Amino acid sequence: MVRAAVLPAVGSPLEIADIDLPEPGPGQVRVRLAAAGVCHSDLSLTNGTMRVPVPAVLGHEGAGTVVSVGDGVTHVAPGDGVVLNWAPSCGSCHACTLGEVWLCANALAGSAGIHAKRASDGSDLHPGLNVAAFAEETVVAANCVLPVPDGIPLTDAALLGCAVLTGYGAVHHSARVREGETVAVYGVGGVGLATLQAARIAGASKIIAVDVSPEKEALARAAGATDYVVASENAAREIRGLTDKQGVDVAVECVGRAVTIRTAWESTRRGGRTTVVGIGGKDQQVTFNALEIFHWGRTLSGCVYGNCDPAQDLPVLAEHIRAGRLDLSALVTERIALDGIPAAFDNMVAGKGGRALVVF
Fold this sequence. Notes:
This protein is of the alpha/beta class. It is built from eleven helices and 18 strands. The protein has helices at 40-47, 94-97, 154-157, 163-174, 190-202, 217-223, 235-241, 258-266, 290-296, 310-322, 341-349; strands at residues 2-7, 15-20, 28-38, 56-57, 61-69, 81-84, 116-118, 124-127, 137-141, 145-147, 182-186, 206-211, 227-230, 248-253, 268-276, 299-302, 332-336, 355-359. The strands form three sheets. Strands 3, 5, 6, 9, 10, 17 and 18 form a seven-stranded mixed sheet that branches. Strands 13-12-11-14-15-16 form a six-stranded parallel sheet, with helices on both faces. α4 (163-174) crosses α5 (190-202).
């Protein structure tokens, strides 16, 4: 048996429970978790913003050590450190054939499977976003694990599984920030902090962090922000004031709220680019009139998983880490146990802190 954080139903609180985890079958890998990040997407699963089969073991950002492998698995072996990949590409759907693996139509197919059984009553449990990282151990499909790059501690490597890939990709793949450009980042949580570091790595000349909490300014500046704006109805005006009344070249929205998306778009210059990383609900409606779309010539685009191919991007991120350009520990503001996840959710709702990291 292993301990895990279980979501019994949408809208219900998480339960820390013992589960019976099977041995890996053909094409599967069993992993002992070293750490798992608490991401806003996990919170979105609990409140129904994102939907997967329940009851489920949540957690999708993690890293650990291979315990055992099933038949046919050759790219990892017992004792190897691995990063969990919650959105593996199938390689054969339309998006994958176009090379857009982050849009794979079958990426979350594994979430419908039976992952484990609750020890108390034998009821079936699903893997929340394929990998069920909020547990001492997990069993995943072989394409859900990638070797940890050399020199990266396992607890830090957990953050590579979502926050860092998403923030880095938003800057380098989606917005394609060029050296000397100006950038505004809305939301200074785990993904926002990774986005700020990515903008610094890209050579942005001015990096403006925007958040509802004045207390996050020090965190933002440590990650690379040159300026800090407390979110308000005047945020776009303040940002234009910091950029010779032009607006930034690029805005990255990491919140997922209609008002924030609209403000991010308004804070870019004429011809500017806005990338939306935050996951909002269906009730969050963003409106534009036809004339302003023509006049401003701005681009608004979505961004899934940083538009990344983890197999290609992890080695690049590892090189930035080894060179000291990317500091994973700077994203973490709290290290907790499994039973600390509900409080970490509360902090996210309240806009407090960066990334909470479950350390096993």
